Amino acid sequence: MRALLAGSARLYLLLASVCRGLSSGSQELRYPPQRIAVIGAGIGGTSAAYFLRQKFGKDVLIDVFERGTVGGRLATINLEGKDYEAGGAVIHPLNLHMKHFVKELGLSVPKGQGGLMGIYNGDEFVFEESSWYIWNFIKLLWRYGLNSLRMYMWVEEILDKFMRIYRYQAHDYAFSSSEGLLHALGGAEFLQMLNQTIEESMQKSGFSQKFINEIVTPVMRVNYGQSASINGFVGAVSLAGTDGGLWAVEGGNKLVCTGLLYASKAQLISGTVISIEEKIQQKGRSGGTVNLYEVTYNSTSGLARDAYNIILIATPLNRKIANITFRNFNPPIPDFSNPYQQTVATFVHGHINASFFGYQDPSQFQLNGIFTMENPKLFINSMGTVSPVQDRTAALNPLLGPRVWKIFSPQPLTKEQMNLLFLSYDSTKAKTWLAYPHYSPPEKCPPIILHSRMYYLNSIEWVASAMEMSTVSAKNAALLAYHRWYEKMDMIDQEDLHERLKTEL
Ligand SMILES: Cc1cc2nc3c(=O)[nH]c(=O)nc-3n(C[C@H](O)[C@H](O)[C@H](O)COP(=O)(O)OP(=O)(O)OC[C@H]3O[C@@H](n4cnc5c(N)ncnc54)[C@H](O)[C@@H]3O)c2cc1C
Ligand SMILES: *[C@@H]1O[C@H](CO)[C@@H](O)[C@H](O)[C@H]1NC(C)=O
Ligand SMILES: *[C@@H]1O[C@H](CO)[C@@H](O)[C@H](O)[C@H]1NC(C)=O
Ligand SMILES: *[C@@H]1O[C@H](CO)[C@@H](O)[C@H](O)[C@H]1NC(C)=O
Ligand SMILES: *[C@@H]1O[C@H](CO)[C@@H](O)[C@H](O)[C@H]1NC(C)=O
After folding, report:
1. What is the CA radius of gyration of the chain?
2. Ligand 2 centre and the CA of 263: distance in Å?
3. Mean pLDDT by 10-residue block, N- to C-terminus, for the chain (505 residues)?
4. Helix (H), strand (E), coil (C) string for 265-317
5. Pocket residues for ligand 3 (CB within 6 Å)?
6. Among 154, 303, 306, 341, which residue is least crowded by beta carbons within 10 Å?
């Protein structure tokens, strides 16, 4: 009750001070906002707080609401005293926002080591890497012709265009929709990728069905727990993850989130946001109005309310994830409760049962990663050895003997399934995620602008769900909120940015 009253008192004070500063209708926009709320302290919300601070300056109060732990889908799990990445694990070398954050926050990025990978079709391995690089190359050529080389070129071309976002954002340009952002990077071709599956995209580009089934599909299964029927753009993002040089943060990727939160000087409010309501307040004699958003949240001290000028929602608006009710909006905010894909990450310290994977002589088994093809009898998507976040190089040794495996599967593993996968194991732990969107192109992204000053960052997940995508969306939303507040419309949805910024070098 006290918190509730305190909330209302704050709302009143905020209203009063906003009103005092204003004289006529549209002029209110010249004053800086006083309070901004960010809902969700994952990489999206914490990087949004950081970018909001950069744009709006030191005086604005920024509250970040978090129901669980800071980091969200960047989280670790403890097994036998060591921590392992249970959610978002690897970062691409060209993810420039993430790279900038770790540098700015003084975090360290040890060199990871790759291991040997094999592709399992449910009966046997159709492809296995060996420790001899040249031999792998010859095997790839033999089995898939030039498909794998062409894939790297195909992905690189897409990545090149994607990289334009950093220049646009460095010049402060923002986009009012995820489709608009995508169009500014790669035109109709990129938008088209949202409308077709990665399989269709690659078929049209001349890749063989064998390559799609044996290489592309297993990569989609590892990264998104889904088949090659996910949209072409997220598929390409997923394939970019097969590049070398992937990295992770020493101590855990979630340290980026706690670091950004600290650097943003935002206030963390531990609580669950339940509803958001629009409050339109008359400003007295001049007759103008002030729009505020009242956030109702549930914390350890009960229900409370606070009012904000601007709101950024940095969690999927899926009823099973963030059940936020929008009250009093006219027109009402539609329901974007699109389905999310369940993925279970199971960690096991044990001896793998190589004969389950068709090995006649288990002592020959040397793989660190098992990717799988589509096969209804398979109950796992992938499994691979992992290192603790404190010692990223440990996964490879000892080569024989018990190791820690991370298994992705759509359902929790049963005891019987565990006994098939492992000869023996001494400990295991699992985390069930609603991990990423369940993609089914043609994809339509939910809006970024939910209401005049309320923005939805996780719209971008329907283009592709990845840490860097959340940070790109966070910076975009911070810029969008800023330009719309100060009515700098010439910074939003500009055409031909790529051509224009070329001459501006
Ligand atoms: C198993 C797995 C593996 C992955 N692997 C990779 C990878 O290797 N590389 C990569 O780049 N990406 C990977 N991803 C995707 C990546 O983790 C996500 O895209 C990214 O972390 C999403 O961040 P976010 O901040 O947008 O959302 P989240 O991290 O989900 O943050 C949302 C936050 O909001 C909070 N919240 C929700 N509702 C409320 C409420 N009502 N009130 C207050 N707080 C609320 C939640 O508790 C959560 O902390 C993986 C994801 C999973 C699950
Ligand atoms: C994608 O499909 C939608 C309908 O689902 C359509 O409105 C849109 O124009 C299509 N976009 C492209 C680039 O083909
Ligand atoms: C708020 O939290 C308390 C305790 O955590 C819980 O009992 C209550 O049901 C919650 N209320 C709402 C509206 O979610
Ligand atoms: C979401 O919240 C509404 C109202 O608070 C409630 O009626 C509904 O059961 C909730 N849904 C889920 C899936 O939790
Ligand atoms: C190992 O895999 C084989 C082949 O699938 C299976 O028969 C056996 O039960 C599994 N488990 C053990 C402990 O050997």
Report:
1. 24
2. 41
3. 44 47 47 96 98 98 98 97 96 96 94 84 94 86 94 96 98 98 97 98 97 97 98 97 89 98 98 95 70 95 96 97 94 90 98 94 92 97 94 61 91 98 97 98 96 97 98 98 97 94 76
4. CCEEEECEEEEEEEEEEECHHHCCEEEEEEEEEEECCEEEEEEECEEEECCCC
5. 274, 298
6. 303
